[in-house]
Design brief:
This protein is of the alpha+beta class. The protein has a domain at about 1-120: 3-Layer(aba) Sandwich (Aminopeptidase), CATH 3.40.630.30. It has five helices and seven strands; from the N terminus they run βαααβββαβαββ. The chain has helices at about 10-25, 30-35, 40-55, 105-115, 135-140, and strands at about 1-5, 60-65, 70-75, 85-95, 125-130, 145-150, 155-165. A seven-stranded mixed sheet has the order 1-2-3-4-5-7-6. α1 packs across α3. The protein starts with a strand and ends in a 5-residue tail after the last strand.
């Protein structure tokens, strides 16, 4: 396994991981009609913009196994400014067949290093309450900061913010 910064040309693979991970992770949680609307093209365009933005204030890492991108993680400034944290882990997604192999922890570690390097002191992540991967985040010993209801498609879902007050060494 190799963890590296995303670069131009990775967009389609990141989009595939993003869409496919949503469809497997949230099957039975998020309504099927919403999952069916997820598109590789829309996500590819989103990730093209993220890669073009660079890594000055944010970071986007990919995990490769035998040359194929099987996971990614992104992070940057905390978006709401409502909490006493400055960084945010936006996403970690790993294809189902590659989960539970240490890739998530490796991606988390790289994101944390990147945020520290960019001057961040703390971080949070939002996780759907029914996300089967929630235990992954709990294993990293965060504090629960808040809960909110968010709209995905036509349904409301509970989302939990977990935080780390000090991410430095």
């Amino acid at each position: 396994m190799i963890i590296r910064l995303a670069k131009k040309g990775d967009e389609a693979s990141i989009a595939r991981v993003h869409v496919d991970s949503w469809k497997t992770t949230y099957k039975g949680i998020v309504e099927d009609s919403y999952l069916e609307t997820l598109s590789y093209d829309n996500r590819k365009s989103m990730w093209e913009k993220a890669i073009q933005a660079g890594h000055e204030k944010s970071c986007l890492f990919v995990a490769e196994v035998e040359g194929d991108i099987v996971g990614f993680a992104s992070a940057g400034p905390e978006r709401t400014k409502k909490y006493k944290v400055d960084g945010e882990l936006y996403a970690i997604y790993i294809l189902k067949d590659f989960q539970k192999r240490g890739i998530g922890k490796a991606l988390y570690s790289k994101v944390r290093e990147c945020l520290i390097k960019n001057g961040y002191k703390s971080m949070l992540v939002w996780v759907l309450a029914d996300n089967p991967s929630r235990n992954f985040y709990l294993s990293l010993e965060p504090q629960e900061i808040d809960t909110e209801n968010i709209q995905i498609g036509n349904q409301a879902y509970e989302e939990i913010a977990y935080g780390w007050n000090f991410i430095g060494v």
